[in-house]
Amino acid sequence: MKKLRIGMIGAGGIAQARHLPAFQKLNDLVEIHAICDVNLDRAKEVASTYQIPVVSNDYLDIFSEVDAVCICTPNKFHAEIAIAALESGLHVFCEKPMALTAKECEAMINASKKQEKVLAIAYHYRFKREAQAAKKSMSEVGTPLVVRVRALRQRKVPSWGVFTNKELQGGGSLIDWGCHFLDLALWLIGNPTETDVTGSIYNKLSKMPNQVNEWGAFNHETFEVDDHVSAFIKFENGTSMLFETSWAANIKKDEEHLSISGVEGGLNVFPFELYTTKDGMLLNSVPPWLPGEEQPDIPQARNFIEACLGRSELVLKPEEALQVSRIIDKIYENGGSLS
Q1: Taking Cα atoms as reference points, which of 131, 108, 145, 243 lies closest to residue 184?
Q2: What mean pLDDT, rounded, does the chain reach?
Q3: Whose CA is closest to 206, among 195, 220, 192, 193?
Q4: Class of domain 126-294+323-334
Q5: Is there a contact between 274 and 265 (Cβ–Cβ < 8 Å)?
Q6: Based on CB atoms within 10 Å of each CB, which residue in 96, 97, 152, 244 is the most buried?
Q7: Domain 4-123+297-316 class?
Q8: Tens digits of per-residue pLDDT, 137-155?
Q9: CA distance 229 to 243
Q10: Domain residue spans of the chain
Q11: 16-55 pLDDT per residue, tens
């Protein structure tokens, strides 16, 4: 059976921590054949670790060597590299967010349709066991009414890489972390079209000197992205979403919360619980066990590979990732100046 030859573009933290290990575990389906990074020494080091035969510091050099690429660069370069790869006849698996703006996302989708190639975006929260259980249980919820999302960290601004560089990343806590929960929430309620998006963006805390930050010291004087965002989103079907995300909240502890209240019932995703009524009773259901793989990276990578091989459809369509970026654009546009 022919394996999919994949090339890694970007050899930094997300490639090493998530995607390379996931693809390596699926070596019956895929071969990690090439790796590229602007830091050639880092690319060579990672290539040695994973026994990758082709190494380069120019992504164009690896296109002729592979069938697909995995893009793990700063957000600014997602669209440029993805479109170049698609136009070269390659399938593309791109880290989240899809791109810096919705306009760039649309260009990526147009390129994938023109070339008839797979374009997947790495919103791995969809592949968590709790998320899969929630999706299967949405019939018990009925028509969704209110969605509540809180992706909050207690003083954990990423102090490494380019996370606080607006030019390279496009934003902070919202585009980096909150986007996962926004995508998951939209998917669970069926991706209805948003009709109204309002929000507020902040970075006052991270601009103050002498901050306590669990993830290491960072330069408060050059901090230029959001560290806290709140939003209210309304959809064409009448559903509303209360959304909040933060890298640096003054709260008791980190919180990953996504709950949905519907006409027939409700659910909580982390941990998964189902709230229904039956025979005049209120029922709170907590499963003792959930099917699926503990690490969502594996089923996510497998879904991309099998889609490239023509064996299955993508769980996450690029048009759905476009909607996430479109809403993020609106929150940033309507959120006012950072304060």
Answers
A1: 131
A2: 97
A3: 220
A4: alpha beta
A5: yes
A6: 97
A7: alpha beta
A8: 999 999 999 999 999 999 9
A9: 8
A10: 4-123+297-316, 126-294+323-334
A11: 999 999 999 999 999 999 999 999 999 999 999 999 999 9
- For 92-105, the pLDDT digits (tens) are 999 999 999 999 99
d(CA 98, CA 91): 15
Secondary structure (3-state) at 303: helix
What is the distance between the alpha carbons of residues 252 and 105, in angstroms, rounded to a whole number? 37
Question: Do residues 244 and 150 make contact, with C-beta atoms less than 8 angstroms apart?
Answer: yes
* DSSP letter assigned to residue 84: H
Q: What is the pLDDT of residue 335?
A: 84
| Residue positions counted in the chain | 339
Average the pLDDT over 94-119 and give the result: 98
Q: Which helix (H) or strand (E) holds 241?
A: strand 240-246
Token pair for 257: 């919360």
Residue 216 burial (C-beta neighbours within 10 Å; 0-12, 13-18, 19+): exposed
130 token code pair: 């709790």
The whole-model pTM stands at 0.97
Q: What is the pLDDT, as a whole number, of residue 336?
A: 74
Per-residue confidence (pLDDT) for residue 2, from 0 to 100: 83
Using alpha carbons, select from 182, 107, 175 the residue that is nearest to residue 149: 182
In the chain, the N- to C-terminal Cα span, in Å, equals 56
Q: Tell whether the torsion through CA atoms of 253, 162, 245 and 135 is positive or negative.
A: negative
Nearest 5 degrees, angle CA 168-CA 174-CA 179? Answer: 100
Q: List all residues 6 or more positions away from 88 whose beta carbon is below 8 Å from its beta carbon.
A: 63
